[in-house]
Amino acid sequence: MKDTYKTITKASEEVLFKDRNSKFFGYAFPVKNEEEANLYLEELKSKHHKARHWCYAWQTGKEEQDIYYRANDDGEPSNSAGMPIYGQIQSFEVTNVLIVVVRYFGGVKLGVGGLINAYKTAAQMALENSNIVERTIDEVFEVSFDYPEMNIVMRLIKEYNLNIVEQKLELDCKIYLSVRKKEAEAIFDKFNTTYKVGIKRVDS
Prior knowledge:
alpha+beta; 204 residues; Impact; single chain; five-stranded antiparallel beta sheet; Impact N-terminal domain-containing protein; Ribosomal_Su5_D2-typ_SF; 11 strands; Impact_N_sf
């Protein structure tokens, strides 16, 4: 079971690719959803308000069934900008990422082949200039119990080196655990078979 994914930790530094007086500025941003992607796009449109095109591609989702992406040519010939940018997202095997390439037209038409190369290269440079990390896909569990069971719960957490996300120790106790996906079933069973301890999955 694959339970890791690659993403970037922060926005990349601006990169620049030039071809026959056209300038292509490349940027990479970490995003969790389309709304975040749109905010970064608006920022760049404001920053580069004299540019001709703001072409982009983004992808979100950590597992195959959750992958969602969009590619936009923003007025360039069909499939000459957005898909070459998206191709670099696939090539670098990253997700939860937005890549934008801003073009200033230099007066010389590059042709479809030239555009594909320029947008692909600027996207590649942006990702090469990013801090790419591998992260685990985790599930979050809510473990509920009363105070007398505190010791046994904490012993299990320590024994399996589990990550506590949050604790609510009130009239009764709730502890939220983040567990790596491939270990999740075994950990669920361990708590589920412990006397007077409840466990359930929650959305992470």
